[in-house]
Structure to design on (482 residues):
């Protein structure tokens, strides 16, 4: 590795004057013709030039904005010199999934959002694209595979949930010599990376090369296995596990309590995305058919999932695909970059409208949706302006399919019922925020089942913290309270 740059020797004026070239994307018409990744490949020369724009800010706001504290300026210092593997190794010190986070993180809200160029209304250093470029390079060089620790601790850990939180924790614990077994309800590892985030944002090959590494670390995988159906926490204790990590996400889709919500052609976001985006061989028979969307699709909700659904609908052949959101763009959650991509691809977004009822045809298939116009009132508990219907403003639109992307919740009551541990009133697991320890010694939790719906990078950060705490607990001789 190179020594860190001398801050005083950096010619910031020269760097600030360097031309900015946005990371290339495939043209929208080509993108919607299939499910391939939206980004176009970048060249070595492009990556070096993009990294050279980093002015090596002494305060490094990008590092502080990254939930994992990635040492971005130091990685880019290597990248601009063409030392791509070193750059990847620096990202990998703090991030076990740089190839994935580089693709799916909302960088405009995190590292790139605080880049000094952004403040000047200029394109930021494309940190995410450079991170995934470096990580992909490392895989091509055969350096992405991790090896198990030479020694074994003799302690056994069960990790329930093979999403980014569970995978991150499993890798760290295995590298520390513990015997890890992962359990998951799906047939393959990845959680929402494999069964949720669409292929055009994150290709399944990227996820699979990552999850393939689990076995090379000696991690045992027991998939198609559901906690609460034949598998219980006390059963795991009886099997001799010394610690358990619950990383089961927050996978319950919010429902819409209006007439017609049970019609044919009305889809919940996750099964819709999974059926459209996942290789059928990785799915149970009930989810193997591609959703039929017809010509006119309505997506209800805001945020990343709504954008994923509308972009998926366009790829499934919809001629008109519209997101209906009850607030305005200012209040809309999610990544503005994904919204821009969706609109480029032909998606429409209608603000300040909320569905009132759905109508079916004689076969019981949805054919129309009545909505009411909304206006914003005083801010609610979340600080966002509360929407209220405008009396008499109802209107009806024709639709062939409706996708409900109304957000996610943890399964309220599930945790308390299954594990006998304390839960928050909304169903999230109650933990010590420093360690992820639950109210029962030896049982930890990490990721969306603690945070509520969050980001991949948060799940990685959480999984890492819980793994470090479990390692300390086991090293100190701890075992699960019975
Ligand atoms: C459609 C969609 C798009 C998203 N897009 C982005 C994005 O672009 N960028 C971003 O940063 N974040 C995105 N997110 C959020 C991100 O995917 C999650 O925050 C992250 O995956 C949470 O990780 P996790 O490990 O906590 O849980 P998950 O990824 O949800 O994994 C939990 C795992 O637990 C398993 N499980 C659940 N219950 C049981 C049980 N009872 N027994 C056994 N196994 C069980 C599940 O099968 C799953 O594999 C998106 C989320 C969705 C839904």
């Amino acid at each position: 590795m190179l020594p860190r740059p001398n801050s005083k020797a950096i010619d910031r004026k020269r760097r600030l004057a360097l031309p900015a070239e946005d990371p290339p994307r495939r043209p929208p018409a080509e993108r919607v013709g299939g499910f391939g990744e939206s980004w176009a490949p970048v060249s070595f020369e492009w990556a070096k030039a993009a990294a050279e724009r980093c002015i090596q800010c002494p305060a490094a706001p990008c590092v502080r904005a990254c939930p994992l504290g990635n040492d971005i300026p130091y990685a880019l210092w290597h990248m601009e010199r063409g030392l791509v593997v070193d750059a990847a190794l620096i990202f990998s010190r703090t991030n076990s999934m740089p190839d994935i986070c580089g693709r799916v993180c909302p960088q405009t809200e995190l590292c790139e959002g605080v880049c000094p160029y952004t403040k000047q209304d200029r394109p930021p250093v494309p940190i995410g694209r450079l991170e995934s470029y470096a990580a992909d390079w490392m895989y091509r060089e055969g350096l992405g595979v991790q090896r198990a620790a030479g020694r074994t601790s003799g302690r056994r850990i069960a990790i329930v949930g093979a999403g980014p939180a569970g995978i991150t924790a499993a890798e760290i614990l295995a590298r520390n010599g513990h015997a890890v077994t992962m359990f998951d309800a799906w047939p393959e590892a990845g959680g929402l990376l494999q069964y949720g985030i669409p292929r055009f944002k994150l290709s399944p090959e990227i996820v699979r090369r990552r999850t393939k590494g689990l076995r090379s670390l000696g991690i045992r995988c027991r998939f198609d296995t559901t906690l609460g159906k034949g598998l219980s926490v006390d059963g795991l204790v009886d099997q001799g596990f010394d610690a358990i990590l619950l990383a089961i996400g927050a996978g319950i889709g919010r429902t819409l309590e209006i007439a017609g919500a049970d019609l044919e052609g009305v889809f919940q976001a996750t099964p819709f995305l999974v059926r459209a985006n996942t290789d059928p061989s990785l799915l149970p028979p009930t989810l193997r058919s591609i959703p039929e969307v017809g010509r006119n699709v309505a997506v209800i909700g805001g945020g990343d999932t709504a954008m994923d659904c509308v972009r998926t609908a366009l790829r499934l052949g919809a001629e008109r695909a519209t997101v209906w959101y009850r607030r305005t763009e200012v209040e809309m959650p999610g990544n503005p970059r994904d919204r821009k991509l969706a609109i480029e691809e032909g998606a429409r977004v209608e603000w300040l409208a909320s569905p009132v009822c759905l109508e079916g045809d004689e076969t019981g298939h949805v054919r129309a949706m009545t909505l009411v116009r909304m206006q914003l009132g005083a801010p609610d508990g979340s600080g966002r302006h509360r929407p209220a219907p405008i009396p008499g403003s109802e209107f009806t639109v024709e639709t062939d399919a409706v996708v409900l992307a109304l957000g996610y919740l943890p399964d309220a009551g599930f945790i308390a019922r299954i594990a006998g541990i304390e839960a928050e009133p909304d169903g999230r697991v109650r933990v010590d925020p420093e360690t992820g320890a639950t109210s029962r010694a030896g049982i930890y939790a990490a990721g969306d089942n603690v945070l509520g719906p969050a980001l991949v990078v948060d799940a990685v950060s959480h999984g890492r913290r819980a793994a470090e705490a479990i390692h300390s607990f086991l090293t100190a001789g701890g075992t699960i309270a019975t």
About this structure: The radius of gyration is 23 Å. The chain has a mean pLDDT of 94.
